[in-house]
Amino acid sequence: MDFSLNDEQREWQMKARKFAEDEIRPISLERDAIGDPTKTFTWEIIKKGSKLGFRTAAVPKEWGGHGTDFVTQALVMAELARGDSAISKTFSQCWKWSHLIAAVCNDEQKDRFLKPFLADDTFVLGKGITEPNGGSDNRLPPEDAPKSGIRLKAERKGDEWILNGEKVFIANGSIAKLFFIDARTDPNVTVRQGTTMFMVPNTTPGFRYGKVFNKRGWRFYQNAELIFEDARVPDANVVGGVNGSERKGGDGSGGDLFGDLELAANALGVCDSACEQAMEVALTRTQGGQRLIDQQLVQLRINKMHMLTEALRSYVLRVAWEHDHKIHSANAGLVMNYSTDIIQTVTETAMEIAGPVGGTMHPGIEKLVRDGMIWTHLAGDAVQRMRTVRRHILPKTKAATH
Amino acid sequence: MFNLHLSAEQLEIRDTVRDFVTGEVKPVTLKSDRLDSCDRSLPLDVLDKASQMGLRTLSVSEDNGGAGADTLTSVIVAEELATGDADVAATLTETARLGHAVFDTLMNDEQRERFLNAFLEDDRFHLALAEREPDAEIELGINYHRPQGGPSPLKTTAVRSGNHEWVINGAKTCVANGPVAKLFAVQVATDPASGRNGVSTILVPRDTPGLTIREANGGLAWHHGTSAELVFEDCRVPAENLLGAEGAGHGRIERDGPQFPAMNLGIGRAAYEAALDYAQIRTQGGRLIVEHQAIGSKLADIAVRLEVARHTIWYVAWAADHPEAVADRSISALPLKDIARIFTSEAVHEIAKDSAEVFGAMGVMRDMPLQKYVGDALIFLHSGSGTSDARLRVAESLVGFQRPAGNA
Fold it and tell me: What is the CATH number of domain B130-243?
């Protein structure tokens, strides 16, 4: 067992910490407070971060990226999230699909899309799966309702595919230049067997984004509606093969594995920030002339926050290490589910310490609680927990039937 | 005999308020553009209608022109109102509760003569208690089980000017209903030299020269209803505005009653009802989500918490209506109000989050009511001096800890 970081990992971690402290934290609360969800985002921070490598960190070196390992990626996501969870996610969303491109795109596609992605500080990526009538059904397709799930339709017409339908809550929806879109190419079979993944540039005729969702937390992060009206996508943009979305986008790609680690690492950064901000309150605020930290209840709460945060850190880094050693276990799913519980407990405990002063809540900690709520439907809801069991914990012969 | 069988009148009032909330409150307060912009301004038309139904003066005795509702009825009404909007509920409940304390128990005939008609006739005549002061430490916290706990000495003073006037100077903060109240009951030190025993309560009408009212608002203002800071600068009121005896002390008007957890409960019920409705129309996994174990058991947990919380609140209210049952030890002498507050605020926080989770991603969208319920539940969890302090008060009472006289 060796828990030490190598020089490269340490260097990325410190670079991310400095960027979070110098650039992200100073704008975090003001961006979060903007009421119009289309206005919370700013390219400035993305451009600055991109120049430091945070947008392209996960692209393999042979394709011109930084080729960071999973441990480095986890460290960087946590450090950025310590400054602002939603800004960290905007960067790491690009890594998620960098992994996918590296794993499943052919060389011609990599050439067409990775090069412009690497060259342009404002080239961010997104992926569209969820639809108004298909959320959980795409993550855990029901055996007894084979036609449930994705309805966005793709029909072949010559060298093109014609896409019609709608996606909702799509990450980076209003800002991404390239989307990976899952569309139904065979309506007569299950979503797993009849779905194809397409690369859809935002300039595609017949494609546009609609409403940007106004979320309680993660306000910087842009989740939008994507609308396809006879959108024309070249056949050369099919990723992996027709009706192959599930196989290609699934565990084999690295994209899915990364997604689990991503949410847990981001949660870790939020927990670190909660510990830090709560400690500051406990050390500076007084009651009866004594610091809050002198009270037993406050010490017990600080203890709980640190205990849970450190447990999460150990788990996150273990999963990152497993990924780097090509060990596939249930841990990625489990740490993602676990992070949902921990981020809420830790941020809510910070709020117990901070409380309202003079009738006003601590703004930084209040934001962390709102950001923490986002996990409830991403990483730790019942569907994700059952998915972890079915995909990773059940003996393989049993799992295969699901 | 302990009896929670509601009277025909109580059932009727519950149904009437429920219909009012469905028909008149929710259509205003849950409009998606209002939710989307986190607009928490008071809907004055809704409050007017509620006043015309008698809800503003609910707890004021019938002799004094109110509905004369007992505590149990008032908690039922508070829950119903809060299912529509916590801010509307908080505003009405505060006025109704103070209306009973002030007009029924503390005012003399001459004062009633001067203020009662104006109060009854004006739908927008609200009441406020000005008690807390800026920088005063209200937490029990570090003073748990130590003799020095209890309210700090007041810095707001009232000095007699001749025989005819009080001259008030000082500042108050976190005054619930401050922005809408037309009459304030202000706690002041009338005999600062004697310390805590010199606390008196003086009635100050809103338009009194020397009184400045500043509304506290914004998304981080951690209270329901409205709240204000008051500044008194040589603010003069007639000597006859002294409420009760001079130096009668703190605590003659309770800071809050069981209506407080009842409003909290209303938030939980609104979240539960929304989740239950949605679970019966949303299909995933080939069937309605209510038919999935994961959702079904979550809804059951919510229902369990709601029922236990409601029972606890009703028990507190019944005890308040039957002091003889506490006196003869039929009912626990522990601080039941704190017990109800602790259980309800923690339960409703979980209820609101669980209910939001039933909606998936829609549960975190600002234009949907669920995120409002979660935010409202968090406010209840930490408003005032919070649940930690309530726990410490219960802990002190378990061993009968009492502060030396004058410090409580």
Answer: 2.40.110.10
